[in-house]
Amino acid sequence: MDRKVLNFLKELTESFGPAGFEREPARVIEGYVRPYADEILRDKLGSIIFKKKGTAERPHVLLAGHIDEVGFVISGIDKETGFLTFDALGGWFDQVLLSQRVVVRTRKGDLPGVIAAKPPHLLPPEELEKVVKRDKMFIDVGATSREEAEKMGVRIGDPVVPWSPFMTIREDKVALGKAFDDRVGAFIATQVIRELKESGINHPNTIYGAATVQEEVGLRGATTVSHVVDPDVAVVLEVDIAGDVPEIKSREAPAKMGKGPSILTYDASMIPNQTLKDIAIRTAEEKKIPYQLSFTARGGTDAGRIHIHKVGCPSIVIGVPTRHIHSHVGLFSLEDCSNATNLTVELVKRLDAKTVESLTAI
User: Fold this and answer.
1) pLDDT per residue as tens digits for the range 187-204
2) Which end of the chain is less crowded, N or C, counting CB atoms within 10 A of the terminal residue's CB?
3) How far is Cα 337 from Cα 149, in angstroms, rounded to an integer?
4) SS3 189
5) Domains in the chain, start-ordered, CATH in brackets?
6) Which among 138, 147, 74, 78 is positioned nearest to 104, based on CA atoms?
């Protein structure tokens, strides 16, 4: 990736945007992709859609990646101490939260804080052996009373995200930071549109890249975007769970970071269109793009809603294997990300009306 593209990825992933509060990453996406798109569209939840005309109006090809990140929302302010209680926006594993820095966005600006709990020095021995649950934690922004916290701008309902600056490691081969689930997918959608525009690549369809919202709380933006785009076929661009982590068996998560993008064979929300999946595999093999076959027994993606739009929309998921998703810090291979872009570009070039019609032939 050149420096301009890497800076865009940094700005996008560092932007503040938990589910329901995605305006900042939406503005980043729109500002970057506007020169490459023929038209910018929106739904009324906050999703951004960027259209690229090809040599035919139909089929409509939807490339979707969500821009909301897992975060929190303030649920209360302790009167005596000013500590903030919080609920989750999206799925969190309680054990990854303690001692992590966060940013609370208030009406008066952003407040840095830290997630904390009762010090272990004050816990009885039997409590030391137990996992601290989120309802026993609080966010400390340095206030000493509710009145002081409120003067700082804090209100119930304020959103919170991890504080986690973007950086690259291993000689710029691996990215480290927050919100990769799924700003990486939205990033790939913009890169496909950019590549088609800058390289003057013909495609026999109309492409709609989409940065969807509120995926982490129920795939909501995928539903509204589908109404705007009315897709004939969809490629959902996502992160995948990298299984190259100690204690994970390959039958639990077969994809590995650095071995190529994954093509999802099934998850809890969608079984992909089998013909489309085979076309993606064949495309990768013909173009010598490394790939992996993957599955997710639990969880789902925006494809869970898109594939049942109207009478159905043939869909697949192309993923970037990412370590430690739904935490403060994830890692993924920039080469996997580039190969996911390459595979998607090659795939959309093949999705003409006859091919898309064949996806549902018996």
Assistant:
1) 999 999 999 999 999 999
2) C
3) 41
4) helix
5) 3-69+178-358 (3.40.630.10), 72-162 (2.40.30.40)
6) 74
